[in-house]
Specification:
By secondary structure, the protein is an all-alpha fold. The chain contains two helices and no strands.
Length: 131
Amino acid sequence: MSDAEVDLVNRDPNNLNDHVKVAFEDVLAEPEGAHSIDCVWKLSYKCFNCSKGICYNILTILCGIPLAFCWGCEFAMITFEHVWQITPCLRIYAIECGAMKKFFSTCLQCCLGPIMETCGLCFSNIVVKNS
């Protein structure tokens, strides 16, 4: 994905981080009857949002690119593991289980099938009458 394809407006299109959308109103609230002075409430609002924004920007500047690199490597390793190890192993397992299914199915049809069919014929002649 090139820079031209990066959506700079909607940076969470799949809503992966809805759980961390925190606004001032989600953290601080004064109940009825316990209100601070209006200027304190307004300055607290500005201080909260400003400090949250500055701190987040500093952390992203210091850690964002290295963490993006680490997560890119992690997902590359997971993709490699699935493509070159897990999926081929699952395919082998499915093939082997398919062969075992045919083997056991044939054994059951050859050995147990005639016995069950005979038992069915014997028991089919039983008639129960309620009196």
